[in-house]
Predict the structure.
Amino acid sequence: MSTVFTTREIADILGVDTWQVRRLFEDGTLAEPERFAGKRAIPRALISAIVDAMRRRRWLPQEEAAHA
């Protein structure tokens, strides 16, 4: 598994829409990651924070564990 992911890859891993992942960065919930070739290079270490933020918004069930 890669050490960095695009917004789409994170969405696919978590089974959510791309806009939901993007929104977490755009509204300041999570700090913007570095970009590579115009795309967010989201480090693997940030996946748990993304899952937590999505659970707080009820975009993911509370009991579901991330598969990343």
Q: What stands out?
A: The longest strand covers residues 4-5. Helices lie at 7-14, 18-26, 47-56. The mean pLDDT is 93.
